[in-house]
């Protein structure tokens, strides 16, 4: 399901003295099955842009086509768009509103007016997918969940709608390393096994570098880079200048390079870094 | 979906106008005075004078008139319903009947009563909003506290009362933001808030209230902890960083208000009330 953004601009509090433009003339397209990372400093407009992808924001200027449907179109079935493009919010507290875990996860399917058994089945499967125990947690009070469990429940609630595109807004924030790794593995599997398009917004460059195939960099409401992950992280100085924290391995390789080691730029994860460093060391040995 | 866009009550719009710079006590007393006069206003010409006066104040403050009136927008449906009720249900024995349907009668008395109530609500709302638009929360608090100080003598906890009031005012906007987030979360999973007619939209609003109240309680608890963490103990022994001073501008404002009040009272007495 392709998403196309054409000349999109957006302002908050339009028509009031507090009006503030947050997106400026954005153009991009995301094809079915892609794994796209969106990065940028805080308040750069990432979330606002992403909320256009499932018609939570309707463009005033420019347009957004989701699977060819113009979200501005008064006849467009926005509900169906929102079920097909799942959105996991930045803060699970904003997303979970039903009293119990089971009820919250069933909220989406219930709105799709599916038969009872189908809903139960989807809730069970979604809980299993995110690693929440159905038996003990189905009737658990939402407020009795830990931070990590809330995250999982929020993701499960979206997965229960069986989206074709999944927008994840900084979903690993505030998780411990293990919880983070589990969520990331889940996301990778959703992409690989079910071919779900993933739009992954994150403030952790390490995560984005190791997960996404393509990266869109946003700064002050404008797309400043849109390229393959490797190409984007090769532009170290530009990323630094807008205040982004680079992936640790990229920084390491960069430091080694400036210290005079002959290494290729733009290693994205630890394994790659190990490979290029050992290769360089062997070469040095051989030269000796 | 932007709810906060239409909320102006409790919002402060910084500025440097004559009105912004007045002592908050002057503004609070003036707003109270204007409101009391409005409660006695019963004729169209008196309302017209009030409209001119308040309009002049708004343009003097530099606040865009459209923005000052914006907060009324969400209230319009409710006002319309109130107006219809008055039109059909309020009657006087000598009223002229415009038309008759089943057990309902639209009379001229009902029409004027409807107009009177709506005008009053509109004016009350605009005056209060105008006060908060031109006065920051801090000076509003200081002003109210200073005005209520004499009541401490009879044992009224004025500082605490003002604190409660100001928190309530702040929560208008906080709750609207919270509401927006919940609505967005429900929209993202298939509730079509932005589709359907007025009644359908209203029905969809109900499942939003439970999480809203839970969120409000959570917010309140966080606020308590934050106040405790900064050793808030109520009004006792508190000192002020900024002290309030009445100046020439406040004296002028008082004169202008007295002139307006006098003229308005004259018009109220000399003109025929609408009902």
Which features would summarize this protein structure in a list?
heterodimer, A: 288 residues, alpha/beta, Rossmann fold, 2 domains, six-stranded mixed sheet, four-stranded antiparallel sheet, 10 strands, 43% helix, globular, B: 275 residues, mainly alpha, two-stranded antiparallel ribbon, 9 helices, 2 strands
User: What's the Cα radius of gyration of chain B?
Assistant: 22 Å
C-alpha termini separation of chain A: 55 Å
Separation of the first and last Cα atoms of chain B = 41 Å
The interface involving the most residues is between: A-B, 32 and 27 residues
Q: Any idea how many domains of chain B?
A: 1
The run of helices and strands of chain A is EEEHEEHEHHHHHEHEHEEHHHH
Mean pLDDT across all residues of chain B, rounded? Answer: 88
How many extended strands of chain A?
A: 10
Element-level helix/strand string of chain B: HHHHEEHHHHH
| Spatial sequence of strands, sheet with the most strands of chain A | 6-7-8-3-9-10
Tell me the total number of β-strands of chain B: 2
The first-level CATH class of the largest domain in chain A is given as Alpha Beta
Q: Which range best describes the helical content of chain A: under 10%, 10-25%, 25-40%, 40-55%, 55-70% or over 70%?
A: 40-55%
- The CATH architecture assignment of the largest domain in chain A turns out to be 3-Layer(aba) Sandwich
Q: What share of residues of chain B is helical?
A: 55-70%
Radius of gyration of chain A, CA atoms, in whole angstroms = 21 Å
Tell me the β content of chain A. Answer: 15-25%
Largest sheet report of chain B: 2 strands, antiparallel
Helix-and-strand structural type of chain B: mainly alpha
